[in-house]
Amino acid sequence: MVEYNFDEVQNILFVNNSGRREFESMKDYFSKLKKYTDKTDRLFILEDARKINVKFSSEHLKRLSNVLNQVSKLYSEVHHAVILEEHKNVAYAMMINDGISRSNYHLKAFIDEQIALEWVKNM
Q1: 102 secondary structure, DSSP code
Q2: How do residues 9-65 score in pLDDT, each as one tens digit?
Q3: DSSP letter at 72?
């Protein structure tokens, strides 16, 4: 389940991403990040994915990076902090970030929510 809450005062999209995530559902989540262009041209995302259950393989990571490359074309900047607990998920986030070819999309994994929020706010 993915829940979205765009805070117009802070200009931050808060995302709660939990439950089972197959490749298609993760791709759909990333694609939905395109719909905030009417609110901002600089997208700041704080995603809590500590309760996510990833059910796709590392073979899908390049395709997910490609989706984020498409998202980045719609914004001048994207700063995406994702809070994770499982080591495999942190590694996947780092590999997705490595596959992002556009210099305006910044994805960073965190284990601490407060530090992730500070990073997003200070960008």
Answers
A1: -
A2: 999 999 999 999 999 999 999 999 999 999 999 999 999 999 999 998 888 999 999
A3: H
The model's pTM: 0.92
Which are the contacts of 56, defined by CB distance < 8 A and separation ≥ 6?
A: 21, 22, 23, 26
> What gap in Å lies between CA 98 and CA 105, rounded to an integer?
11
Residue 90 CA to residue 83 CA, distance in Å, equals 9
Domains of the chain by start residue, with CATH: 2-121 (3.30.750.24)
> Where do the H-state alpha helices sit in 73-111?
87-99
Cα atoms in the 13 Å half-sphere on the side-chain side of 96: 29
Would you say 76 and 104 are in contact if contact means Cβ atoms under 8 Å apart? Answer: yes
* Structure-token match 């998920």, residue found: 89
Q: What is the mean pLDDT of residues 62-86?
A: 95
